[in-house]
Structures are given as C-alpha cells and as structure tokens.
Amino acid sequence: MSDKSYKTITILMADDDPDDRILTKDALEENYLANDLHFVEDGEELMDYLLHRGEYNDTNAPKPGLILLDLNMPRKDGREALAEIKAHPKLKHIPVIVLTTSKAEEDIFKTYDLGVSSFITKPVTFEGLVEVTKAIGTYWFGIVELPQRKKS
Predict the structure, then answer these.
(1) Is residue 34 part of a domain?
(2) Which residue(s) pair with 11 in the sheet?
(3) Would residue 5 count as lying in a domain?
C-alpha cells in the first residue's frame, strides 16, 4: 500500500496478549499504517492513557484517532472500557474497533449497543491480519473523515 494520501493518526491498541500486539504492529507496518502506534495491556491502563492518569500525561499519551480494542482483558475488560469511553463527553467521539477472538453474537450485539464503530474477529493467520489491517487502513485512513484534534 503505497498511497501516501492516507492520514496520519495515532492508533491506540488495548490487548493483553503480547503476541497479538506484535503481530498487529507488524501487520500495520506491512501496510504502512504504524506511524504512531501505542499499546496498553488492559482496560484500566486504557482509561489511564485516555484520561492522562498515572504514568500517562499529554506528552507520552497523544490522543488517539482510533482505538483497537480486545474484549477479553484482565482488570477491566474491553466491554467495560468501551462503555466508559462512549459515556465520556471528551472520549465518546473516538472511533473504537473491537478486534477480538470472540465470535459470540452476544458480544457483537452488546458492543454495537455500547457504540463500537466496528467489530472484527481476529484472523487466525498473519496473512489474514495483514488483509484486515489493510481494510482498516483503507476505510479509516483513506475514506472516512475523522474528527480533528482541537488545538488548545
């Protein structure tokens, strides 16, 4: 994917599996989309990042233009974090893509009820993940107009 018209945005991935984080990073890089990628390991850390709490401040936690969210994480799972994000006035406009191993209809319905932008089941192969990240890039960085970060 050599189309340089894609927008540069910060991607925040919340996933407790280090292998999934590495594979997703590699797949995004394969599609030239990993220009500003950050990781958190659970829903608590995700909310700390988004709300600039604890170790996260404005300089090391840039506002994401897109969140990739796993559902099954320790401490606070993705469903709980999604509900908090979509209920928060300063966070609710951030697009959230659930990227999970779950195929449960209940999870699909619940996350859409909570306001998720897309629900994607993680592919089982790296090649499949490359194709999924390519589609994410085409749609979210090439087609969709995302809200721009307000300058203070």
Answers:
(1) yes
(2) 37, 66
(3) no
Residue listed under structure tokens 């990227």: 99
Q: What is the pLDDT of residues 85-102, one digit of tens each?
A: 999 999 999 999 999 888
Q: What is the number of structural domains in the chain?
A: 1
Give, in degrees to the nearest 5, the angle at Cα 90 between 59 and 13. Answer: 60
In this structure, how many other beta carbons lie within 10 angstroms of the beta carbon of residue 52?
14
Buried b (16+ CB within 10 A) or exposed e, 64-97: bbbbbbbbebeebbbbbbbbbbbeeeebeebbbb
What predicted TM-score, i.e. pTM, was given to this entire model?
Answer: 0.86
| Cross-strand bridge partners of residue 119 | 98
Whole domain around residue 134: which residue ranges? 11-140
Instruction: Classify the C-alpha dihedral 8-50-147-71 as positive or negative.
Output: positive
CATH number of the domain enclosing 66: 3.40.50.2300
